[in-house]
């Protein structure tokens, strides 16, 4: 198996900083913005994005997590992981702009599950999507609003995101089983 690192810690930092500026610009500030990370690596990325927004002068933004496990369409085929907590800011998501944050966008099925999970919680004004890596190969008509890096990959390759909060280092790695 071959591996190649396509993003290191500096690349990830710069991508998050750029996405923070894009979120501030697109939403004319962050007054009504909530970041919801999709476990597991989307949660620390959402916290980093919130810190970058504050550092960029956008002000404080609420951060939470949205577990999508029970909304997935592959529960019968794949082993189910233990659900992670869904933590929504005290003000809820009604009439807010929710930015879903995930590590990798691939088929779009996780994002679809996240949209289903959101509807059981409330009704946001808008939902946007921020991902660190977009590898293509969509199976559903979903696209990210904010992308750290587009990664052309083959279906046989695997994209692994490492974040220091979970993995003790920051990196995006493409593994090729051939």
Task: Describe the protein.
This protein is α/β, with parallel strands linked by helices and 178 residues long. The chain is built from four helices and eight strands; from the N terminus they run βαβαββαβββαβ. The strands form two sheets. Strands 3-2-4-5-6 form a five-stranded parallel sheet, sandwiched between helices. A three-stranded antiparallel sheet has the order 1-8-7. α2 (42-55) links the parallel β2 and β3 (62-65).
Overview features:
single chain; alpha/beta; five-stranded parallel β-sheet; 4 helices
Explain the layout of strands and helices.
Blueprint: E1 2-7, H1 9-26, E2 33-37, H2 42-55, E3 62-65, E4 97-105, H3 109-119, E5 126-134, E6 146-150, E7 158-162, H4 164-167, E8 171-176
Parallel strand pairs: 2-3, 2-4, 4-5, 5-6
Antiparallel strand pairs: 1-8, 7-8
Helix pairs in contact: 1-2
In short:
By secondary structure, the chain is an alpha/beta fold. The chain has four helices and eight strands.
Q: What Rg, in angstroms, do the CA atoms define? A: 16 Å
Low-pLDDT segments:
none
* Number of alpha- plus pi-helical segments: 4
* Percent range of helical residues: 25-40%
- Mean of pLDDT: 94
State the end-to-end distance.
Answer: 6 Å
Walk across the major sheet and give the strand order.
3-2-4-5-6
- The helix/strand order is EHEHEEHEEEHE
Strand content: 25-35%
- In terms of structural class, how would the helical and strand content be classed? alpha/beta
- Tally of extended strands? 8
Report the major sheet.
5 strands, parallel
Query: What is the oligomer described by this structure?
Result: single chain
Q: In one word, what is the shape?
A: globular
């Amino acid at each position: 198996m071959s591996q190649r690192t396509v993003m290191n810690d500096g690349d990830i930092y710069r991508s998050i900083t750029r996405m923070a500026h894009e979120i501030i610009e697109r939403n004319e500030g962050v007054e009504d913005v909530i970041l919801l990370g999709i476990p597991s690596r989307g949660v620390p990325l959402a916290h980093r994005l919130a810190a970058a927004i504050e550092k960029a002068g956008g002000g404080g933004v609420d951060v939470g997590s949205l577990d999508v496990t029970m909304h997935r369409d592959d529960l019968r085929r794949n082993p189910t992981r233990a659900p992670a907590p869904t933590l929504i800011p005290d003000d809820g998501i009604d009439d807010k702009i929710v930015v879903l944050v995930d590590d990798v966008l691939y088929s779009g099925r996780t994002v679809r599950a996240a949209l289903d999970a959101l509807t059981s919680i409330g009704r946001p004004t808008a939902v946007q999507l921020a991902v660190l890596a977009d590898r293509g190969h969509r199976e559903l008509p979903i696209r990210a609003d904010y992308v750290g890096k587009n990664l052309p990959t083959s279906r046989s390759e695997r994209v692994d995101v490492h974040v220091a909060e979970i993995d003790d280092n920051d990196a995006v790695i493409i593994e090729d089983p051939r």
